Amino acid sequence: MAFPSLLILVSLVHFCVGSIFTAPEQVASKTYDFIIIGAGTAGCVIAARLSEDPSVKVLLIEAGGLDDGTAAATISIPLLAGTGVGTPIDWNYTTTSQTGLNGRQIQYPRGFVVGGSSSINGMIYSRGSSEEYDRLATVSGDSGWSWNKLQKYIFINEQHTPPWNNRSNVGEFNPRVHGKGPLLTGLTPTVFGTDRRVIQTTSDHGHKYPFNLDLNSGNGLGFGWLHTTVGNGARSTSSSAYLHPALNSRSNLDLLLNTQVTRLVSTSCSRTFKGVKAAQSATAQQYSFNATKEVILSAGTVGTPQILMLSGIGPAKQVQNVGIISTLDLPDVGANLQDQTILALQWQVNGRTLSSFLNDEAAVGAAIAQWEINRTGIAAGNTVCIFVDTICFLRLPNNSTLLKLGDPAAGSNSPHFQLAFLVSTIRLPSFANTFFPNVNQIAPTTGNWMSVSVVVQSPTSRGSINITSSSAFDHPTINPAYYTTAFDIGTAVQAIKTLLEFLSTSAWNGFILEPFPAVAALTTDASIEAYVRAFADTLKHPTSTAKISKRSDKGGVVGPDLLVKGVKGLRIVDASILPAAVAGFPQAEVYIVAERAADLIKRAWSLT
Ligand SMILES: Cc1cc2nc3c(=O)[nH]c(=O)nc-3n(C[C@H](O)[C@H](O)[C@H](O)COP(=O)(O)OP(=O)(O)OC[C@H]3O[C@@H](n4cnc5c(N)ncnc54)[C@H](O)[C@@H]3O)c2cc1C
Ligand SMILES: *[C@@H]1O[C@H](CO)[C@@H](O)[C@H](O)[C@H]1NC(C)=O
Ligand SMILES: *[C@@H]1O[C@H](CO)[C@@H](O)[C@H](O)[C@H]1NC(C)=O
Ligand SMILES: *[C@@H]1O[C@H](CO)[C@@H](O)[C@H](O)[C@H]1NC(C)=O
Ligand SMILES: *[C@@H]1O[C@H](CO)[C@@H](O)[C@H](O)[C@H]1NC(C)=O
Ligand SMILES: *[C@@H]1O[C@H](CO)[C@@H](O)[C@H](O)[C@H]1NC(C)=O
Ligand SMILES: *[C@@H]1O[C@H](CO)[C@@H](O)[C@H](O)[C@H]1NC(C)=O
Ligand SMILES: *[C@@H]1O[C@H](CO)[C@@H](O)[C@H](O)[C@H]1NC(C)=O
User: Fold this and answer.
1) What is the pTM of this model?
2) Of 280, 297, 500, 554, which sits 20 to 30 A from 179 (CA to CA)?
């Protein structure tokens, strides 16, 4: 990270330090109705909603620290989105060697800070298709998870805001599908030539490349403007939107930082898991806490199955292999891991993009300095590593032979792949160590470059998370098993062909100058496949390691109410419960699931 201005201690975000604790002994003698594990995307929503009832006491335990100090700049400044990767607010996981990616091991970031991954992610806000939620209802047997029934939770979660410069967004989104929630979203403050050409192509060839006024309307197919979790010139996270407002106004919510939950313990002989053990390091003293009502596990797709297995809940053999007594044989804990990958193709273009700005350290430093004054300027609305203003979600052609392998999409109006249009190169020398470290494609630093990222939205490869020891402080193994099915690799190849065809339409004439070298060689299916295996990186969207199923199903980890099957007192609320990789981007769905889950918990305990 090369920007000196980042070394300035930023104290722009003033948080009240109400009920915030940094050592377990400070809260060890207190009693709580609910204990929430992980102050991440879902955990902060649950903590804020449950503590709305003044009669309950809530403890939220987070392994990482607060989003203040130096971390505040990295987290809050939209331009710096992505630069938290590989820093003290990242867990710094790595995958196992991926056979589908020529044996490469992939750096695997997850947020290690309040807000969790919502504090370090690419800020894209994309709900996916209505069918995505209807599938959740079908697999769980609970119609309450359907798109129509979830509308009220969507509206209390999110709110559309204008960009910092008040650029008109008329005709770029549908205000009727956005609500009044604390999570702020918005569209780009600056429109570039690439964006105009994407939209122009949809008007030139609307049948083939349809414009979609709002990809968050439930109709998640077609081309449209991309929403990000940015409002008032700053990133909106589950911490800024939910946690801090709750801490500032309530005394019944305690936040315990820098403390890792090491396992859950049974508090009665009837498999009631309301006990939590936690410590600040592998060698530090273990403290125990009991919830009188429930424990809610929100440690994410990696952390949640790890904690379950450490507690003896999971595949019995895997648990016993590291010397833990199996309490409950639940084979799907840690199984069904699904993740999406990103791959970029780049072109030098005849028109301004952000790549020249981003390669100019002085200009970037000045932009950050301006942001620090009044949260305006180029740092206030465009992100460093994603820079996407327009995006499309598409299906394979109806006659594609790949669909004979079965259609993994959530329905016939849900995508198989995504193309996102970046007004920059995917990797910049000055940000080299951040978002896509495995994508070894640094384009020349001169000229203006655009990139298009290609994502297989509905992968059929299945991997797993596994513990490697009985210590919570040892990283689990993460094996997403990328590109281990014919469908996944075939879909990536088709997506790239669709992209090359899209860019050959008239709107792009004279704009696209020269492809980044490797792109020029993509002339056959075999060469495209080789490119995918050489350059695909994680999009950082793992799900499904504690997946939801019907109460009566033998498989799955949680039932429709998100209670863990076969035990009492324990619920899971995070991306691990999702049945499959999402049709959009996961954070929107995690927020929506968390809002309804909080309501289910409140109803179960008759809270207000
Ligand atoms: C770099 C990056 C970029 C991404 N970009 C996007 C994007 O642009 N758009 C999008 O929609 N999604 C994106 N995602 C994915 C999205 O952010 C996640 O799917 C979502 O935030 C997951 O929410 P969660 O609640 O399941 O987990 P998290 O938000 O990760 O929360 C888990 C929390 O639990 C804590 N924890 C874990 N284990 C323990 C323990 N033992 N004890 C105590 N605390 C623990 C963690 O520190 C963390 O705070 C991205 C993710 C990353 C990492
Ligand atoms: C992640 O790695 C960076 C760089 O080595 C380090 O500074 C940081 O402390 C690590 N994060 C954690 C949670 O250990
Ligand atoms: C945008 O509009 C708001 C509300 O009307 C106003 O306060 C703000 O100064 C405007 N910002 C710019 C850059 O015009
Ligand atoms: C939690 O409950 C268990 C079982 O009832 C008990 O043994 C333990 O002492 C309790 N711990 C605390 C901190 O209350
Ligand atoms: C923000 O600060 C910059 C730099 O001082 C200034 O040029 C700009 O006018 C300010 N904008 C607003 C809306 O206050
Ligand atoms: C593909 O099939 C679906 C229904 O199966 C139909 O709605 C759609 O119009 C078809 N697309 C094309 C391009 O024919
Ligand atoms: C699918 O249809 C298109 C256009 O109708 C055609 O060009 C292509 O060859 C067909 N593909 C297959 C696999 O049949
Ligand atoms: C999980 O890890 C254990 C301990 O390292 C190992 O024995 C087992 O084979 C692994 N199982 C899977 C499915 O990866």
Assistant:
1) 0.96
2) 297
